[in-house]
Amino acid sequence: MRRKVITVDEEKCTGCGQCIPNCPEGALQVIDGKARLVSDLFCDGLGACVGHCPEGAMTVEEREAEPYDEARVMAGIVKAGPNTIAAHLKHLKDHGACDWYNEAVGYLKQHGIPVPAERAAECGCSTLACGCPATEVRTLPQQSAAGERRTRPSQLRNWPVQIRLVPVSAPFLKHADLLITADCVAAAHPDFHEELVRGRVLLLGCPKFDDTGSSLEKLTAIFRENPPKSVLVAHTTVPCCFGLVQLVRQAIAASGRTVPFAAVTIDVDGKTVKQPNTKE
Questions:
Q1: pLDDT per residue over 176-202, tens digit each?
Q2: Of 40, 55, 56, 171, which sits with the fewest C-beta atoms within 10 Å of its C-beta?
Q3: CB-based burial of residue 73 (10 Å sphere; 0-12 exposed, 13-18 middle, 19+ buried)?
Q4: Inter-residue contact 157 to 178 (CB < 8 Å)
C-alpha cells in the first residue's frame, strides 16, 4: 500500500540521535552513525520526529510501505514503561490518529496494563496540537425539532468540516456518504442542510483560494484509507467552482479506489441547475 513514512537523508544526517526520543514507536535507531528507519511497520508517518532534527535530514514521504501495525508497536512500547506509553498515546491523540489511539488503549486494557489517567478517555478525536477548537474532531448528534421551535434543525454530522482540518483517520469518515462542497454553496442554497447535508458527512473547500495540491493530497489519502460509500460534489455556477469537480475526480483516480461519484450544480440565486447524476 502507499502511505506516509519517514525518510532520512543520509547525506545530512550526523547521527546525533535527537530524533530518537521523539519516536516512541521505536521506528528509528542510530545504526552505523546514521538515523535509520528500522521498519515500516513501526512508523506511523505522523512526523513527530521531523522537527527535532537539527540538520533537516528527516522528511515525510508517501511511498509503497507495509501497513503500520499499532499492536506490534504497543508490544514494544509497554516494555519501556508508563512514561513511554503516555508519550505514545499523547502523540497519537494530538495528531488526531483516533483509530490507532483507541487500538492502543484497547491493547493496554486487554493485557491488564494501566492506562495513564490523563489518556484514559477514548479519542473522539482530540484537539490537535495547535489547540484550536476548529480542529477538534467530533461526531455530532442529530438534532430534532422540539416544542414550539419553528427553525429546522441542523443536519451537520461532523466537525471539523474544512478539508484542510479534517484528519484522514477521523472516525466519521469510515464508510460515509460524503458531501464535498465549495464554500459558496452553503451561502447560495436555501435548503443546503435539508437537501444536501442530510445523511452525509460534510467536507468544505474552495477551489479558488485553497492550496489545490494540499487539497488533492488530503482527499486522495481520505479516499485511499477510508473509502466512502459515495461522494457527492456540490458547486455553484461560478466558473472557478467547477474546479472542485475535477479535483475530486483526480483524487479518486489517484487513490486507486472505486467510489460512486455524482455532482450537483447550484446557481448563485439558490436554484438547482443540475441534479446529481451517479453515472458521471
A1: 999 999 999 999 899 999 999 999 999
A2: 56
A3: buried
A4: no
CATH number of the domain where residue 263 is located: 3.40.50
Alpha carbons within 13 angstroms on the beta-carbon side of residue 137 total 27
- Per the CB < 8 A criterion, the answer to whether 74 and 106 are in contact is no
Q: Residue 87: inside a domain, yes or no?
A: yes
Q: Calculate the average pLDDT of the chain.
A: 82
CA 133/CA 156 separation, integer angstroms: 17
Q: Which three cell numbers stand for residue 152?
A: 429546522
Look at residue 93 and give its three-state secondary structure: helix
Q: How far apart are CA 140 and CA 131, in angstroms?
A: 20
The model's pTM: 0.53
